[in-house]
Fold each of these.
Amino acid sequence: MPKIQFINPKEVRKAGKITFSDIPVNQYNKSIADEKNNFSNDDFIRILRDMQIIREFETMLNLIKTTNEYQGISYNHPGPAHLSIGQEASAVGMAYSLTIEDYIFGSHRSHGEILAKGLSSIHQLDDKKLMEIMKNYFDGTILKIVEKGHKGDVKDLAINFLLYGTLAEIFARETGFNKGLGGSMHAFFTPFGIYPNNAIVGGSGDISVGAALYKKVNRKPGLIVCNIGDASAACGPVWEGISFATMDQFKTLWEGDYKGGLPIIFNFMNNMYGMGGQTFGETMGYEILARLGAGVNPEMMHAERIDGYNPLAVIDAYKRKRKIIDDKKGPVLLDTLTYRYSGHSPSDASSYRTKEELEAWMEYDSIKWFGDELTTNKIISQDKIDAMKEQIISLITKTLTLATDKSISPHMDLNKDPDAIGKLMFSNGSVKKMEQGEPEALMPLSENPRVKQLATKERFAFDKDGKPVSKIKTYQLRDGIFEAVIDRFYKDPSLVAYGEENRDWGGAFAVYRGLTEALPYNRLFNSPIAEGAIVGTAIGYGMCGGRVIAEIMYCDFLGRSGDEVFNQLPKWQAMSGDIIKMPVVIRVSVGSKYGAQHSQDWSSLVAHVPGLKVVFPATPYDAKGLMNAALQGTDPVIFFESQRIYDVPEMFHEGGVPEGYYEIPIGEPDIKRKGDDITILTIGATLYNALKADDILKEQYGISAEIIDARSLVPFNYELVLESVKKTGKILLTSDACSRGSYLKDVAQTITELAFDYLDAPPVVVGSRNWITPAFELEQYFFPQPDWIVDAIHERILPLKGHQAKNNFTVNEEIRRNKLGV
Amino acid sequence: MAIPVIMPRQGQSVETCIITQWFKKKGEAVKKGDVLFSYETDKAAFEEESPEEGTLLEIFFNDGDEVPVLTNVAVIGNPGENTEEFQPSGKNSVVEKESVASAEETKPEEAKPEIPVETAAKHTGEISISPRARNLAEKLGVPFRQVAGTGPGGRIIERDVESYAKLHGTFTRLASEIATSEGSSAPLSGSGVGGRVLASDLSHETPGADDFEIKKISNIRRIIAQNMHASLQGSAQLTHHMSADARKMLEYRAKIKKKADTDDSPNITLNDMICYGVIKALKKMPAINAHFLGDAIKTFNKVHLGIAVDTDRGLMVPALRNADDMNIEQLSAELKKLAESCRKGSVNPELLASTAASFTVSNLGAFGVEMFTPVINLPQSGILGINTIVQRPADVGNGIIGFVPFIGLSLTYDHRALDGAPASAFLREVKLQIENLELNI
């Protein structure tokens, strides 16, 4: 809580009541005749056309899925197709007034939204711009396919381009919008403002908030529409995203033109069902979804239910809500009522609803109704509508022909290029700043109190006589992280950092002390305690082109951001087919002393998921160099820190931590102490216990260990370790992670494969016990200790003459523990 | 027409032989029966004669080459004839140096035809050795099956091979070179395991640059070295000493010698008589007439007596099969024949395998040795050393102390196979057999 805001007990303790204003429900009540001033005949006809294109496109998909045939073309599509037949008016109405600068995010059922936004963008863009977009996208690969034999204007060509790119993507063709790596549930096309759909229900709920944050912080025009389903209203990420988006500070603490609400519309495409569960009357309790806005903020999120079966009602709502966004009074919640005729997926037998219900909705079918309205009002004749439909069928047929032709639309050839997907997992960029311009700061870097204080510190642990410098005088690991972070804040104007207690407090472990003085709210702020949204918004922010550091205060809280860390952050670079970059650093602090829910090292969990870079520095020099590398890169980096060692001085790098900028390449381990008889590979803080173990080995048994600090988990260059193992023939691996399933087990297994002939004993992993982390007073029985390392060496690798083991590392004990699962 | 000369197969277990010397050159004319080349197996040396008259057209292998048996070694025919078709398949018929070493070292395992395959395989499987130690053993030529493991659970690890190799290598190379160069023939006492001499045991005087000669040891020397070292490393052997009153035996010997000098009757030696007594003792107490197989003991019904024979090529221990079927004359004659064939190098290699004998006798009495600790030929569980005869004061009857000739007996036995009491009982039985010798002469 910032000091400038006073929480006055007199005020907050006063008696009173909360009053709510009315939430409009289906208030739109205009006829075509009423709207003639707002729409030209062409506009009306285009609305109908767009709805028809979407209907036909999805009808085709439905036939392909259920009958393997459309218009005489046979094809088997084994992948997903979650259709929204019936919902076309909602999609077209939503997209109608959006500009090219407005971004939409979607769900697994978003084909309609993609096409609607694409068609709207094509209408708005001039021919020159359209050609430029088509020519530049994948070097014109898609354009060349649809251009061949095309007769008609550029807009027609662009429609062909849109339909083909989407369908080829659904069919997993390399010529799709995302090289076939996204597919039906993830297709998108950023040049038209179409951002990723998301196969995880509610997945866009917090990511799109990050996109809105990006718009605001970087003063970009446009708003964000977060298209999610009614059932996602139950999901954590959606609530966390809404909480994040409605933080008071946007209106109270952010300054100048940054002041004001986030430019985002949470558009719930409310078709009343979450797969087979009825949200109205069964699985939710809101009765009318728009009610949810009432509880979030005094503006009640400007919530409204609108009739998604009338495109004009939706368009009307968007025009009104845009004004709210432009007035910086967002965010907005829309409950767009709609209904899907198609099943959740083609395998859906609709066992959860009656035929009568379905037919009742079909009575009001928006395409038929809107067509009738147009003919009644003599805007278009039925013949022309029929001709339009014929034209659309031939367009869809042509698109299907092209998209299923293997010679034109091949799948990615992994025989020819086995690394085709591998090379898309990371972008491996090196970019100083993600946005041009001067970074905003409140003072010159040299005047920053922390920077000035650090100038007085000793940057190496020992003085010139080799004596340790007093702790208070030394530069610490937390200072290394700080220096890299503040350096980047003064280089990259797009960089923002947030998390819990990041501002004022300076982070729970004083890493950010000094940043508050340097940066305005729009670059450093406190987030709600919502780890899902902390990471999810960072993903959206990075996806749009900004650089961000999000902080998870304790590693244990990573579980709260599980979907974001496991399903979103690692996936989007590759799933986009190299369109999206993800310059997102997640700082994760591994705790100790605080027991079972505040002391876990979960680095193994994130290392397991492809698509994340994972580092865990253990010295100030490495912390600064790796943070610099992470902040110069364009990939998601999970940056682990250990609370045990925030205060360690630099003991290894000659000359101490350099004052200037340097990077340590991610993925390169480092020898911290040379030795001959056994290699010890450490991750994180256990480096220091390994050093102590080596002291014991040297003094008591005349054995010297070569101690290698992994520094990174992913990527990881084995060469240095293998070289050491070839020399010593023995390796022990240790970290604070629980030993079962530890990433080091994976490393040990890989070393066994790569250096089997050189091994004098099996690689042995010494991790924490497979228990809860007990209280601080008992931690020595849980976390690996120096004597554990010595005992494990004695028992498993190299019996030490005269050594009496205190800890049980025998083979039988290992079997027993595994048998019990502890 | 050209014909090939092949490397003969000397015994079932022989896979390769080493050509020791060629006596004929390529292009030289040869007669049938001319010695073409000499060669040796692990245990014996042979000469190969020319099968036909003709010209030695081609020689495929040189002195020192190890050649797989039944491989073409040379071609004899008429000048100008094509020898191409006799070219041994691939030049790699010469076994690579590295693998020669390993092949030889695994010999003691392979050359145990009498051990059931299952037991042998099981034994192999039980060896626990790290990949690194195994590779090092192969590189250094260390027979890792004989190395004692000090790793977890007794696993042989790098340091075990290193220490083995250090001892082994130091003696045969550095230490022996230095010792040779100093011209010292006095036995050196070593501080290494099993009495091995370390370089540090020797004086540090640097020998002159060229006042010594380094000779590669022969194949047989190497095998002896390995087997003896393996025996001391791989078993629990110890020696008991005892003496037998030799008066009766000497009386017989005097009679026999006198008789043999006059007619052609067999010249039965003291050694023959002792062997005769040993055979009887073995029949009576068969516990030591056995092979120790690690997890089983194989006790023989018959006595196959190993007899140590000193030859100028080194120690050989041929077996006299079914020695318990022989009377003293037969025994004497067969032992003579066997020793002779060893010295000539024509002994059947099968008889040289340590598994061919059930028990061994080694006699150093002729050298004046008064007491020694013979080394067991594994997997046999005992060996009897015969010492010289010394005069000792003894009660010759009626309380009179006089000098009596006693012959020394040194029994080394493998404590893994039997304990001290039965071993001592056997030794006493040998003594009794000698003292109560009854010969029909």
Amino acid sequence: MRINWIGIPAALIFLMIPSLSVAQDSVENLTPTDTSVSEMVTEDAAAEEIEAQPAAGELLLEADPGLDTSGMITVQDKPNDAGDQLVVTFEPAVNPEGIQCYNVYRRIAGEESEDAWNRVKVIPADEPPEFIDGYDPEYPIKPGIFYEYRIASVSLENVEYFGSVYGAEIAAKGELFHTNKVRLLIAGGLFITLIFYYFWKAQRGTKMYLRPIAGIEAIDEAIGRATEMGKPILYVPGISTISDVATIASLTILGRVAKRIAEYQTRIIVPNMDPIVYTVAEEAVKQAYLEAGRPDSYDPDSVFFLTQSQFAYVAGVNGIMMRDRPATNFYLGMFYAESLILAETGSLSGAIQIAGTDAVTQLPFFITTCDYTLIGEELYAASAYLGHEPKQIGAVKGQDACKAIVMSLITLALVLGILDLVANTHTLDWFRNLVTVSIVE
Amino acid sequence: MYDTIGIWVGAFFTLAIYSFLYKENPVYRLAEHLVVGISLGYTMVLIYNTVILPKLLEPLFAGNHWILIIPGLLGLLYITRFIPSIAWLSRYPIAFIMGTGMGIGFPLTMKAYVLRQLEAAMVPLYESGMPWYEVFGNIVMIFGTLAALIYFFFSKPHKGLFFGTGSKIGIWVIMLGFGATFGFTVMGRISLLIGRIQYLLGDWLHIIE
């Protein structure tokens, strides 16, 4: 019997999901149920008088009437988080004279040691007395844990004057649904639905038109040129990680290009900067040779990892260009400051060059130095053009529909803006609020 | 003493890399191989010290983060590439990284590249008290955005008044934007070149202060 080995880890992952859910529940049980009301912390009477402790070369003193300390500290759970953040506000010193900033210290409630205090924030005296605790990865907030806070007023001579210790009555609690992301959910859902709709239409055999793109049509020509000249083809899949959409688009194109190269029996060189991209690129090229019916022609040394340092990678690729003199260079994926150095060297070597990226800052360099450039979304569409697979053509059509929606909304906003001007209404503000998402969650 | 050696080594390799401007030569090749090799070795040590040791091995040996065994094992699956019979196992960490990358990236992209841009394009053409150049800027932005979007329509031929003219305006707008970006970036690159010249003439040759 043939065992489905691939299914075993997948089944394990499914089994883990209920366990994670139980773990989440157990965390929630630790936290108070009512978190809607702003919770105040109580003053810890026992710790009313905090002894000043020296830290990091600073001289710590008792509270001094000459330098006022902060008042009550209020701690609230931050909504829409994973239970790893608390909103901390405090009453600033009544007399702020001589205070340059406030040092906020935190420790787990119940710990008596003075060493347990960690300075989690420095707030300049002229800034609002509020911050979100939990951003510092060195001192994370853990869900269900109660903390104590104290604040030191720091004098101009860097002397700390400590206020009272306040224990938070509330612990951080995670939420499963981020209410501020509803608009994102709706927009994402709409776009995905459209793309799947056109997938479905394409699979049912509906003919879909794709307009010609010069850069994509030149790919075959460029491969043919290298074959005729008996020179290799260089394919640079960008320097970003596999999580980058441009990298994924590039690897899909690599599969198509490698298939043609395998058919033409030409040599391909694929230097990689990211180790994970390297493994995927290797798989893509190997698969392409297999699909072309020439697995024996595949050279394992054709796809290789060079280095993870940006300019060292550029130096290496430039060296390859000048030594191996490839007839065709492809630069498809995500590029940064190295784009011009690569494309300029390729131009010097006399290769025909086809570039494509969605990096707006690098596109001008490719346009000036390469023969053909795929601009932004043309890179994403290239794979569908090369493969002519109904699914991918459907996806391109779906993306066009998404663009049509965006254009319609902008046009509608334009009309509402004119209406506001003529009729003295405020419809545009209302309409814009429908698509507004906060910058910081 | 060590500083002086460092400056001489830096100057030598700066000139070695610049020698590429003449042509590919053995000195450039030496610098190229050194920089590739050293950067690779450095990255390995860096990743061991900043990721593997503090984020995997230390918490694991501390005995209270057993969950880290899962990513640790997933990472080890990459090594199965060297054993052809089980090389397929290396596809699991790749699939995991691609899946999580896309999952995390989707809402961020939706927010930053769709909704935030859409909101920014929803501005009134004119409001009372608005200076003329701001009105002109708003007109260029709104109609430029629409035209650029028309250019990126792939499923319609670029013919006729709407798609034909619209896409032509769109590519002009895009190229104007690229021109501005080009100039801006070149200025940054020139400052990098000035930095290297200052290093050679100042730190190395002491011709300039």
